[in-house]
Structure formats: structure tokens, C-alpha cells
Protein: Aldehyde dehydrogenase
Amino acid sequence: MDMQGILARQKAAHIRDGAPSAEQRIDRIDRCIKLLIDNRTAIEDALNADFGSRSRETTGVTDVAGSIGPLKHAKENLRKWMRTEKRKTTPAILGLFGAKAEVRYQPKGVVGVISPWNFPVNLTFAPLAGILAAGNRAMIKPSEFTPATSELMKTMFASAFSEEEIAVVTGGPEIGQAFAALPFDHMIFTGATSIARHVMRAAAENLVPLTLELGGKSPVILGKSADVSVAAARVMAGKTLNAGQICLAPDYVLAPHDRMDSFVEAARASVAKMYPTIKDNPDYTSIVAQRHYDRITGYIEDARAKGAKVVELSPPGEDFRQQEHRKIPPTLILEPTDEMKVMQEEIFGPVLPVKSYRTLDEAVAYVNAHDRPLGLYYFGADAAEQEKVLNATTSGGVTVNDVIFHVAQEELPFGGIGPAGMGSYHGHDGFKEFSHRKAVFSQLKKDIGPLQAMRPPYGEAIRKYLSGAIKA
Structure:
């Protein structure tokens, strides 16, 4: 595929047509919404085929409804977002005489979107909400790990958009590498930190601005005042959604040492309630590929070999050694050490290390001794303890008394920090991320005295100004 040619045609169309009107932006968003509604069943079928087993309900919630929501939010608000923003002049006296300062939001042009395999539809369409609201065109490179879904999206977009508006490029790592090296006006990558380093190097050659949505080991801090039953149910719901194949999945739990046993039992009870069976239960998602299955089971065996207690929360009588799909039951790893691989790498599966602490300072220090995560979760009813956790740790975002939910808030920016990513989108923040904020200053028409005083020959007026300006 001629990716360079597609990009050139999109850039030429952007210059030819100029910034699209609000009506044109809404029309593009409406076409995206219609694609999701009309292709719901096909999307569910494709993702089930790609994963081996993935429930229609999971796909409906996360990939279909979870994409329509951001698109509708952008559609309802983009007229307001597009308005020119008035600012104060400096010095203020210029404004009194009629000078103006403003910020105009201008489309960047063509945005490259590299979307991942775990929620391939949502993590294509949700960024498009901001990209299209901001008036841009887009080129999309979906993951080769979900080939049926990627080909479906290529067909979907081609049925509703010209190649000058939105184009989809499919292929393996070589295509992805070439895509990342294109001179886009902006690029958003969602995926692994290790791949992001390559994407960033490629983008640097063309000085392409980046939004990186990565991951990391998102911790749960279980406060001493937490309701353990509620916390365990919510943590395990987040950990088993999509079988833990979520960038924001809780990656490990820090629990008070005297509440470890109660957390384990509450986790066991919550899993049994959600999944009375797992092996042949369509509600429980498979691991997407054999190499990921081997990686996750390798973490479990490595932890067991290094002395951790492994608690498999599997239904009685189910043997996972022989199965049609790559399903791994929810598994707790108790008191892991940092020498274990499960504590060194993002898990991206239904395995949850649980580590005890004796003081909150100890828990906070453990989080701060490691890379800053994409998400952090605190459970508890102690306001002072909550504020200490929020103020003493740094993460992309936080959900209090639940997990993952902050990503669903369209009025909150979603993004990482450090190894968890850079930039943010969703809602108004997404519109601004994919817009060029152009500063415009309109000078006075009349050449009044203060302006003349700024030019040679310098006299008493400029010296008086400097004496007032250069002081504490």
C-alpha cells in the first residue's frame, strides 16, 4: 500500500478544503457512530474470532458502546470547543486602548493512529472523537494480532469515508514501522512501552508530536479502613475484564498485613460469583495469542519456583491443561518479591500479585520506588489517608474506591506520565490535544505614545517604564 501517497493526498485535501465547519465535523462523527451501530454484530464476531473466546457483552460494553459515548460527547460539545478564546493583553493598558489577545483552535492536519489489539475498536474510535472534533483527517494502523477485526475496520471505514478523510492500513511489524516513520502532523500510539520507544524514535526523524498511551504496573492500595469485600469484588471485576488484558488493569495489590487472608477469601468469593465456571464460559475471555499465554503462565511458574504462594481461583473440577481456548483462571500470587518476573513487567493477564504492608508510608514508598504507573487505585474511607496517597504518589490518573473507571469519564483527561505515556485525550482535552492552539495578538491601529516610547530614540518614557518593570 502506498502510505506516503495516502498521506500526501490527505495533506493536500486539508490545505485545499481548509478547516472543516462544525457541521462537517459532526457529519464525520455521525458516520462513525453509524458504523458502530450497523456493524455491532460483525464487530462482536470478529473479536470473538480473534481472541478465541470473547463475550458479545464484553465487546458491546467496551468496544461498541464504549466508543459511541466519546463520539456523542464530542458531537454535543465541539461547537463550544471551537470558539475563539479571549485572553488578557500584557501589559493590560494595551487592552484598554483596544488591543486584543486570543487563542484560535486550528486543525493540525493529518493524525496517525496506531491502535492496539486489546480493545481494537474502542482504541481506534475513541481517539477519533477528538481527532475529528478538532477538524483533522486520519490514517489508522490497527494491530496485526487481531486480524479479523483490523480487516473489518478497514472495510467499515472504506464504506463511509473517502481515503482523503480516513484511511486504514493493515499489515505486520514492517508496515507498522513504516507507518510510524511517516511525517504526520500528530500521532497517537496506544500499546506497550517497549514498542513506544521505537515509535518515538521514528517520529523524532520528522519531529512529529506524539500522544503515547502506554501502561505499566498500576497498583491498588487497600487502606486500613477499606471494606474488603467491596474492594475485592471491584478489583477482581477489573482484573478479569477482558482477562486482565487492559492497560489500566490493577497490576498488584498492597494490602495491610492483617487483612491479607480476608482479601484472598473475598477475592475467591467474588470470582466464584462472577464465574461459576470458566473453562467453557463465554463470559470469560481467552488470552489473545499463544505467546501471551506462554508469557503469563511463565510468570506464574517463575513466582512459584521463587517461593511465592500461588492461589488459583478456579472453579472446582476444571482442568485447564487441556482446553480449546487459551484461558487462564484468575490467579493470586501472595507475597511476591521484586526478583520475580511478575513484579518486573506489566502482566496484561488475569494474574494478581498481593503484597502486604505494615504502614501506609511503606506502601507509598513501594509505589514511588518503581516506574510511575498509568493508573493508581485507593480503597478506603479515611479522608486523610486518601489525601496522603493522592498527594504522595504520581500516576497518570486515579480511581478511588474502584478500578479503571476514571478512563470512562469524558470530562477528565486520560493519559500517562513517564513510562506510562505522554499527552492526554478524551473530551475537551482530546480536542485540545489534536488542535493547534494558535496565539493571535491584534495590535492597536493608532500609534499611541507608549508604543512609540518602545522605539529609538529612547527617552525618559522608556527609562521610567524600565524602573517600574525591573524590580521585585
In short: The two ends are 61 Å apart (CA to CA).
